[in-house]
Design brief:
Length: about 100
């Protein structure tokens, strides 16, 4: 299963999604130095404070047991994401089993 995870153009948000049969919570926050992620799987935090960079996977550790990984795609180049362009310029892509 792969696809786009819809993000609102807001600086701080939490999404609850079911991916590959797993309950996943994403905490997304814009800080001065970039976009940061917390990832929860079935109410257990598996990633804390990961910096999101365009074209780079966020989790990057299969041993954590997540059924896939997340990365941002920039439709206008290769800049790192900014919340103001969520849904128009930057899209969060999920690649999983």
């Amino acid at each position: 299963m792969a696809g786009i995870i819809p993000l609102a153009a807001t600086p701080s948000q939490t999404l609850n999604v079911v991916l590959s049969g797993q309950n996943i919570r994403l905490d997304v926050q814009q800080r001065r130095t970039g976009i940061y992620f917390n990832v929860w799987q079935n109410e257990t935090q598996v990633v804390s404070g990961a910096l999101a960079l365009t074209g780079t996977y966020i989790v990057r550790a299969a041993y954590l047991g997540l059924p896939g990984d997340f990365a941002f795609i920039d439709l206008q180049g290769s800049d790192d994401p900014d919340y103001s362009g969520f849904g128009t310029r930057w899209f969060l892509f999920y690649s999983g089993a």
